[in-house]
Amino acid sequence: MPSAIPINGHRTPPRGTGVVKFTNCLLVKGDKLVEDDLWISSVSGKIINGQEILYEHRAAPDEVIDLGGRVLAPGFIDVQLNGAYGFDFSVIPEDESVGYGKGVSRVNRSLITTGVTSYLPTLTSQRPEVYETALPFLGPSGTLRDPNKGSESLGAHCEGPFISPKQNGIHNISVLRTASSGIADLATCYGASNLDPNSPSPIKLVTLAPELDGALSCISSLTSLGMSVSIGHSDASYETARTAIKAGATMITHLFNAMKPLHHRNPGIFGLLGTTSSQIDKPYFGIIADGIHLHPTSIQIAYNAHPSGLILVTDAMRLSGLPDGTYDWTNGSRIVKNGPLLTLEENGKIAGSSIQLVDCVTNFMNWTGASVAQAIGAVTETPARMLGMENVKGSLKEGADADLVVLDLQNAAEGTEKKLVVDQVWKFGVKVFEKV
Ligand SMILES: [Zn+2]
């Protein structure tokens, strides 16, 4: 079992300049792997210009790390994670804020060992009191730039409750809402202070159904507050979905799941991927590549239609990261966890995902023929671009945060398939995990 390097709550004081050079590695650059060195600073926590250090400052790195030909990628970003390691972002524990804060910290410290260095903690449709307690803990958490805090929230993803009762999936239908008074209804639900134009919001992404009464006007209100809007859990026609994109929505939440399937006379939300770029900006779209939610060929079709929009997400829930077994669920039900597959004990129905993001990358690569770099791009550069953070996250460019993953590309047990394994994780220029 891999284990985390002990996290002691302090940043190790860097020796000398704190400059680290990675060598003998394959860097993810665009859709290619490139043999090159990478320089980082453990003081600034950023990727730096090695040539400048070497020739202008005539300084040598403090540490040279030979990666033995392994892949060096930006840290992964998961824009849809409902919970993990026994903690559910949508459930307020009995000791309320105290327990909730501890739960979030625990997820952050464990999640980083999977290569996910930043993410959007995701709330399913809830009553206002849940947002009131949860959101203060889910806003961007990296301002202290402390690598020992683990994975970093880039802000919350509110998936609902402004979604369609016809496409609610596992969301509790009794808490779903419409937005006939526009953004005022969202403020009532999420909390007015969380939608206040004069203060930063903990919310980064909102999934809503654009066909709901009042929802379209909310899209431009949310984007003007600096949030991104994704279409999801929606029964929208192609035309309505297109109007939502024109209003400022930039993403589709878990494409294919919880929406109408493609029909040749009404292509629905999926049709957005077939629209020419001169008509609308094609949206980004989340894909759950766990082998359960989607057929590999459906993923291939979506990828071919809009390769630069595909974002791999886990949509994983609180049993993710726990050992296989049978767990108590709500209303007396029990869930059987068998690898990434979660089923209800009583009827064998799919009960969610518990896959890790690195395994989504592996599946995607093997199913679509995407290159290693292209597959990694779907959890790094593409989600960073969707979030407007492409110069800070998901990139190995100079000036970006030194959130890094060292990956071993192995041959899978059978056939020609490959497998990516997380060997090391670096956060803000400091190594925080090494597989043993
Ligand atoms: Zn969903």
TrEMBL record:
Residues engaged in binding substrate: 170, 257-258, 265, 293, 350-352
CDD domains recorded: NagA (cd00854)
Cofactor descriptive note: Binds 1 divalent metal cation per subunit.
InterPro entries in the cross-refs: Amidohydro-rel, GlcNAc_6-P_deAcase, Metal-dep_hydrolase_composite, Metal_Hydrolase
Domain Amidohydrolase-related intervals: 72-429
Any single biological process term in GO: N-acetylglucosamine catabolic process
Keywords carried by this UniProt record: Carbohydrate metabolism, Hydrolase, Metal-binding
Record flagged with keyword Hydrolase: yes
UniProt family annotation: Belongs to the metallo-dependent hydrolases superfamily. NagA family.
PANTHER family associated with the record: N-ACETYLGLUCOSAMINE-6-PHOSPHATE DEACETYLASE
Protein name (record): N-acetylglucosamine-6-phosphate deacetylase
Organism: Clohesyomyces aquaticus
